[in-house]
Request: fold
Amino acid sequence: MVTNKISVLCTRAISDTLVLKASAQNIAIDVVPFIETDIIRSTEIGAQVKHLAQKKITAIFTSINAVEAVVSQLTHIPDWTICCLGGMTKDIIIDFFGESKIAITAKNASALADKIVVANPTNEAVFFCGDQRLDELPKILRMHYIEVKELIVYKTIQTPVYIEKNYDGIIFFSPSAVHSFFSVNTLPTTVVLFSIGKTTAATISTYCVNLVITSEWPGKEQMVDVVINYFK
Reply:
């Protein structure tokens, strides 16, 4: 007897390897991105990144997109002390900067901010971020009298899609994707929603009362593992 596969929508691009991993566990994942990100390639931002590359700063990253945006404008590996989230963000930083540059890692922005407060960096702190970045990290730092410069290096664009298919679960990686999805869609209360981090989960709860399963770690693989474990 053939068992019907669990059907899950992922609102952000993931690798074919992860789709196949889920498929092997009887879970069919459809990938439909609900946001796009564009690197800001202005002369002003490029000049600021290059200027900072000549200085010893504490560089803060909470997203893959910010790392990729900054790296695309660097001509050499700067002497930065880096604080970042784990998962893919950390992996990309290691690929370009080397693991020795990473001083602090954490699983979410608030935990990262708390660790930075304890470390109390003396170098200028620069938070490389997107235009829809959350207030959490800079707010915590400023509450503890740590000045942080915010440099917006990419922008997020919502790309909502009306979904006709019925799904057993939906994966969200950011509040922006949640806003984009619910701008044109509604859901039966039986659909299980998966989110990365408490902020994304809280955003989901403003739109519906569905069960939300939260992954504390920011990696895509960890999220797929959470989905697999839930539907076992």
About this structure: The chain has nine helices and eleven strands. The chain has two domains: 6-34+159-231, 38-156. The mean pLDDT is 95. The longest strand covers residues 148-158.
